[in-house]
Amino acid sequence: MSYRVVLTTEAKLLLEAIRDRREQKLLFSRLEQLQENPEQQGKCLRGDLSEYRSIRAVGQRYRIIYRVENAEVLVVVLAIGRRQEGDRQDVYQIAQKLVSTFELDEYLEEESPDLDDRD
Q: Which terminus of the chain, N or C, has less C-beta within 10 A?
């Protein structure tokens, strides 16, 4: 079964902020892999992010934080960024701030996967 992968507005902005096109391409490739068996990839997170999973990308420097909605056959990417422990720009710090404002309903109505919208 192939899952539809969508990025939150914040995840899109975080991805666009990455200036290295090679790194962006590698991140897109990793996102495409989430279309197949997303629950078997990455690791489950804890605490405020317990409903999310995290996978490593681009030589272990980046993390993709996502949530699997099996009933909708959907993967929602909450955040993409570098792991910089102790830094306020750490992807986990950003994700913890975003999780309180996340609304699943706005992603259920989308007709096409965000991965097809790239340039």
A: C
Query: At a CB cut-off of 8 Å and minimum separation 6, what does 50 contact?
Result: 44
List the one residue out of 28, 32, 104, 101 whose CA is nearest residue 68.
104
Query: How many distinct structural domains can be found in the chain?
Result: 1
On whether residue 86 sits in a domain, the answer given is: yes
Cβ-based neighbour number of residue 61 at 10 Å? 13
Has residue 3 got a pLDDT over 90? yes
Give the dihedral sign, CA 60/117/19/26: positive
The CATH number of whichever domain residue 84 belongs to comes to 3.30.2310.20
Tens digit of pLDDT for each residue in 38-62? Answer: 999 989 999 989 999 999 998 888 9
Cβ within 8 Å of residue 30, ≥6 positions away: 55, 57, 58, 64
If pLDDT is split at 50, 70 and 90, which confidence band does 96 have? confident
What is the per-residue pLDDT for 41? 92
